[in-house]
Amino acid sequence: MFASLLHLVFSLAGMVLLLATLPLFVELLLLSLAAAMPSRRAPSAQPAPGFRLTVIIPAHNEQQLIGQCVRSVLAQATPNLAVYVVAHNCSDATALHAREAGAEVLTLNDATGGKGTALDFGFRHALAAGAEAALVIDADSVAGPGMFDAFAAAFAAGAEALQCRYVAANADTTPRTRLAALALLGMNVLRPLGRSRLGLSCGIFGNGFALSAATLARVPYVANSLVEDLEYHLHLLDAGVAVRFLADVAVYGEMPEGSAAAAGQRARWEGGRILMRRMWTGPLLRKALRGRLDLVEPLLDLLAFPLATEVVLLLLALGLAVVARIPWLEFYAVIGLSAASLYLVVSASLAPSPWQSVRALLSAPAFVFWKLLMIPRTRRAARSGSAWVRTRRNAETDDPPEAK
Fold this sequence. Notes:
This protein is of the alpha/beta class. The chain has 15 helices and eight strands. The protein folds into two domains: 2-38 and 281-381, no CATH class; 53-273, Spore Coat Polysaccharide Biosynthesis Protein SpsA, Chain A (Alpha-Beta Complex).
């Protein structure tokens, strides 16, 4: 009797683990398989003569990096390309260095608001100046070759919203940045590529995305959470606007090399996602049940745990299944871990140096342990009203980089 009751308890615990890990399992399996499919190159279109594309660069105390960002944009010499740097609550020489590099500076000083506030300010200024589309690049990033011609051509072909590859600029600096670069390949290349091939909206990642003037008029950028990019993408989906992925061009962003900066960034990202999950799960589920099938995948993405958490839970499920002799749970855990492995392999294959990306997995166990230690900080960041905090840049941090 006691043995049967214990087995029932273990089975119920296994069912909880299955339901908790199922959203990401489905995401990893479907998107990895779709991303691994042979690609079909879409016919290119030529931008209309005089197409006015404006680049918005939100910046808060970025005097060390803003110059290289602006120069990387202007180096492409695309006709009718305007560059605005939104100097948001700056107390350093960001505005001066931006002007010296060739950008027009928009100064914004307000008591509250984070990156979303700066973007909304820049978008409104761009539209008032006659921009037909606005493209966002972070101040710690550089634009890849051919980026602006590709965006202009895609808008000419009828795109409403676009996202290019967002990858690490300093992938080979430390074990931490190598692992972060692999994570970016999964989140910002494999997943949008898979979604694109399945006919879904690819998502917005806060860097290297662009919106047409018509889209901004229809869906104003009223998003100011810790993950304003995810929040705005949900508003776009709600309005029926899909984001198209530009897989052949990229923006390169700096990854934190020190543990303190990486911890702050990670807590902000994951805490912000938890808050969005609380706010949006109900509305998305109700609309999906009413026939909005295009919202099923975004709902799964919102419900999904981070990959490291998923792997820990699947390993726990596997151990429970073996100890309690639950065949169905063992089968599910093995398939789930296989899907995670496939995801990592496909992500690595999308890197310029695949074997270097695979090598980054050697530091994964330490990363998982670090993520477990991060749980209290992530939970604090998930509270409503949590303040946006800028990630310290590598050139200014007091936290020394790890050994190479």
